[in-house]
């Protein structure tokens, strides 16, 4: 079953406007992408089952001209949905944080495979250009650093992260085979750690964990010795990269890394969050989860060459904006509970 809420059509009348379906439109990156697409005058169909996203992320957009909200699970058939003609499809629909995808691993695998296949079938039917949101998790715990797109990864296929890691790898295979067999005009983005407004405070990712704990006066939970690294990309930069990938006249050959190559340890991130929040909280160390990567940093040479894209928001600047969002969100949650 799907529920549809449609705003008055209007964006499609603007010059150069397109009809765009964003699967996972209620999620963190999806909600930010929908905002930019609407601001550019496009007609947007935001499709989501709200499993790991939230309707509240789109609440302020529900009266927006040119927006249609459809509550639907991409695992279920899509071809009978009344979405009209489509020019572009973004597949951002999948739980992306370990607590969410490990809570229902078979559902995660079905979303990565069956859901992707359903969206690709829709792209064939509508002759729409397609962007697949893959992930840096396809590299697993990499033995090459930084990670270029031609690195095949080092993934544990039976580990607790495999439902997501291998699911996304299978999704990439599906995309390539649809391109070969049906000529789908598609592009694959391997998204590295992204943060910013509309993150779920309880999604279990390190940036949201640290900020919520610091704002709540709790000790920050650091796994392992805190020396493992990640590269954090602010969501505005990520959305700009996805738009550039979709807009590129010729699809790059194979997947494209999108992320910020600036590398930080978990200890450096924790110290920066505490400084921005002016918190005196301490660090609490816990055992490192199974298969947690030690280092993660994108080689973005391909994105620079083919998309003329590189991130511009520093971690310090992005954290300030993200902390402001979480302060507002936490205050709203407290007021709603009173």
Provide a descriptive summary of the structure in words.
This protein is an alpha/beta fold. It is 37% helix and 17% strand. It contains nine helices and 14 strands. It has helices spanning 28-39, 98-103, 105-126, 162-182, 206-215, 235-247, 266-277, 301-307, 315-337; strands at 3-6, 19-23, 43-48, 67-71, 88-91, 129-135, 186-191, 194-195, 220-223, 229-231, 233-234, 256-258, 263-265, 283-286. The strands form four sheets. An eight-stranded mixed beta sheet has the order 1-4-3-2-5-6-7-12, with helices on both faces. Helix 1 (28-39) crosses helix 6 (235-247) and helix 7 packs across helix 9. The protein is globular, with a radius of gyration of 19 Å. The chain starts with a strand and ends with a helix.
Which keywords apply here?
338 residues, alpha/beta
Q: Looking at the chains present, what oligomeric state does this protein adopt?
A: single chain
Strand order of the biggest β-sheet: 1-4-3-2-5-6-7-12
Q: Report the mean per-residue pLDDT as an integer.
A: 93
Which strand-content bin applies to the residues? 15-25%
Number of strands: 14
The number of helical runs is 9
Taking Cα atoms only, what radius of gyration do you get, to the nearest Å? 19 Å
Q: For the terminal residues, how far apart are their CA atoms?
A: 34 Å
Structural class: alpha/beta
Q: Please tell me what the overall shape is.
A: globular
Helix content: 25-40%
Low-confidence stretches: 6-13
């Amino acid at each position: 079953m799907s529920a549809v809420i449609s705003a008055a059509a209007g964006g499609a009348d603007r010059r150069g406007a397109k009809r765009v379906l964003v699967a996972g439109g209620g999620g963190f990156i999806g909600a930010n992408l929908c905002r930019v697409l609407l601001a550019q005058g496009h007609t947007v169909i935001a499709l989501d089952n709200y499993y790991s996203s939230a309707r509240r992320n789109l609440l302020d957009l529900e009266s927006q001209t040119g927006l249609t909200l459809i509550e639907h699970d991409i695992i279920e058939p899509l071809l009978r949905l009344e979405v009209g003609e489509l020019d572009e499809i973004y597949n951002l629909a999948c739980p992306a944080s370990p607590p969410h995808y490990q809570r229902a691993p078979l559902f995660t695998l079905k979303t990565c495979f069956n859901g992707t296949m359903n969206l690709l079938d829709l792209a064939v039917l509508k002759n729409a250009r397609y962007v697949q949101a893959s992930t840096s998790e396809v590299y697993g715990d990499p033995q090459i650093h930084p990670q270029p797109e031609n690195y095949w990864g080092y993934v544990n296929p039976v580990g607790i992260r495999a439902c997501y890691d291998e699911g996304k790898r299978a999704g990439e295979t599906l995309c390539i085979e649809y391109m070969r067999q049906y000529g789908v005009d598609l592009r694959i983005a391997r998204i590295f750690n992204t943060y910013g407004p509309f993150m779920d405070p309880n999604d279990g990712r390190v940036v949201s964990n640290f900020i919520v704990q610091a704002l709540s006066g709790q000790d920050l939970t650091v796994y392992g010795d805190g020396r493992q690294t990640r590269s954090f990309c602010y969501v505005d930069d990520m959305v700009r990269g996805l738009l550039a990938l979709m807009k590129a006249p010729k699809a790059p050959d194979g997947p494209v890394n999108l992320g910020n190559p600036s590398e930080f340890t978990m200890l450096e991130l924790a110290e920066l969050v505490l400084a921005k929040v002016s918190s005196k909280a301490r660090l609490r160390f816990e055992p490192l989860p199974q298969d947690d990567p030690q280092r993660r940093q994108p080689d973005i040479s391909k994105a620079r060459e083919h998309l003329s894209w590189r991130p511009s928001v520093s971690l310090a600047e992005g954290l300030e904006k993200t902390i402001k969002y979480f302060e507002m969100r936490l205050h709203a949650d407290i007021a709603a509970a009173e």
